[in-house]
Amino acid sequence: MDSNQQVTRPLFSHRKFWAHRFGPAPFLPMSRAEMDALGWDSCDVILVTGDAYIDHPSFGMALIGRLLEAQGFRVGILVQPDWNSAADFKKLGKPNLYFGVTAGNMDSMVNRYTADRKIRTDDAYTPNAEPNKRPDRAVTVYAQRCREAFPGTNVIVGSIEASLRRIAHYDYWSDTVRRSVLPDSKADMLIFGNAERAIVEVTHRLAKGEKISDIRDLRGTAFMVPPGWLPSDAWDVMDSTEVDTPGPLVKHADPYAMDMGGSSTAAPATPGEQPIRIVSLAERLAARKERRAHTVVRLPSYEQVKADPVLYAHASRTFHLESNPGNARALVQAHGERDVWLNPPPIPLSTEELDQVYELPYARRPHPSYGDAKIPAWEMIRFSVNIMRGCFGGCTFCSITEHEGRIIQSRSEDSVIREIEEMRDKTPGFTGVVSDLGGPTANMFHLKCKDEKIESACRRLSCVYPDICENMNTDHSQLISLYRRARSIKGVKKVQIGSGLRYDLAVRSPEYIKELVTHHVGGYLKIAPEHTEEGVLSKMMKPGIGSYDRFKQLFDRFSREAGKEQYLIPYFIAAHPGTTDEDMLNLALWLKKNNFRLDQVQTFIPTPMAMATTMYHTERNPLRKVNRSSEHVGAVRNGRQRKLQKAFLRYHDPANWPMLREALKEMGRADLIGNGKKQLIPAWQPAGVPGKSFGQGEKTGHVTKTVPTRRVEQARPGRPGVKPTAFNKGGAGARKNRPS
Fold this sequence. Notes:
- The protein is of the alpha/beta class.
- The chain has a domain at 18-219: Cobalamin-binding domain (Rossmann fold), CATH 3.40.50.280.
- It is 30% helix and 12% strand.
- The longest helix is centred in the last third of the chain and has 17 residues, at 545-561.
- 50% of the residues are buried.
- Residues 1-6, 244-268, 694-726 and 728-740 have low confidence and may be disordered.
């Protein structure tokens, strides 16, 4: 059966594997002793992860492990194994079906390195934040060790790291274009995006004796094939240069509104002549859909995109245009003498299926073997609840759309309430405060296109840029209802929303802002304008600063009405592609005018396959049709300029003043040096505060604001469900895979 045509089978409709008789384990076993206690002689599936094992649905190894357990399979977990040999990979024995390999909830390179490519001193996903517990490019290393431990065993790779490296991609840390992770890892299959459907289906089919090399029809999977391979003779190959570009980012006409009705016939002109038949629009659309279902788009090869930035940008644009599950075609890309084949993205889970996934029997705490060790990522989300996944924002620096998709998958209100009650009753240390309700964003809960037919045909890269699509439902009433029910639960004192708000959507629902500000803001709300300058924002696909101003007016108004003193804390990014020093100067002046001070600022990190990464590497704009004369986008590459742009965000730090004075003079803006209110930095240097040279580094991290009466410093909380779960989610640490 072809991947585009297979009927979507309900996630929990499979007959359970025979091992379901063992029942759910208190924790998925990490050792032979635990397997023996459960009465297991072997594991059907062994998950390998670079994170500590926390049995909670915000952590991918737990979510996938519990999902497979619910299907009747025995699942073990190898946690942060020593990758210097294959010994640790033999601890649980040989899996009956496959090794499932993930780098963990974060890309291993983002996890281990700062924006300046320096090794981080801690790891939030490791007990006591101990660093260096996972290798660089962990998916590739772990998969190779699995092969070494048990040659011939099936290996499936997934997670944010594998998902964003499924085709040839620019790698910031080596400053080169690297191959797909598939040929490097030697894995049998790669599962990308939200993996529940694919992982359940492939596991049952392997259990029935099917060879993994014969499983080629599952959405959300990628694999290596011989050159020219096609699923059947019915398939056609289209060169990527034939892929249409999207139309203007305006309201989309409904193609189904012009139904021409049934067919009509005319009498034959001569005996035996076939009658003329007018083909209806519906028939033509059905035929077109059928053709798309049997078409694969060939991207430029790895060798071509490595050698030619224009072809890289073209391939990136084509890849993103083929990302809607409703109309995406399969993709293929040559890597030497073999091809990487990518089936279309997975069909999103229904609300009922998502509820079932999040209500599996999680222990909701770290594995007991960790004792009293503190795991920062767990401390960050232990009292938060994931209510949705996906994001239709399309921010170019963010990887959620490439990974989770832009179609929002939301849980039911009842399911979220049940999880809060379970958290209240089962999670140690609960004091009555729910730290967050959200996901990749705080306020896309149950928001979707008004017409499923239009949604399935749409090829826009964002539903909210340059303005919110008129077909997008922006009604926040279901989220308001959820907030009200959640805070009325017995034992719940407060439900907080700390970050991740799409304020351009929120301003469409003043009632939501009032509800949020009155009951769910703990003094400070973090939002992400990212920049103030239109040129930069257009490369980010973010709304203009006017949207922030409109939101702030409502935020301040409802705060006053509630009798509360509350403040907005903005996120901004330095060194994003398309950003000039003048842009950063204007942003610094805006910050000073609005009395903001940013502490430990954010610098753009080019993560694999993001649109902004394409801009950084190719200096072309893939948001428009790419050719040799297409728009040039400046990339902030050298360390001096990256440090300078970061310094503009921290204009208030005396250590940055010498650097900024020098830059302002070079820019012809020495008039901004002085003690006046409209000047950016003083001409004097405090005693004992030496100026920072361009060769010195600076930490990156959280955001702070100075308010009129006091200085505020508060670390950004992680958003529930934003950690990129193994085989499953997108994002890194906090909202939307933000560089930190």
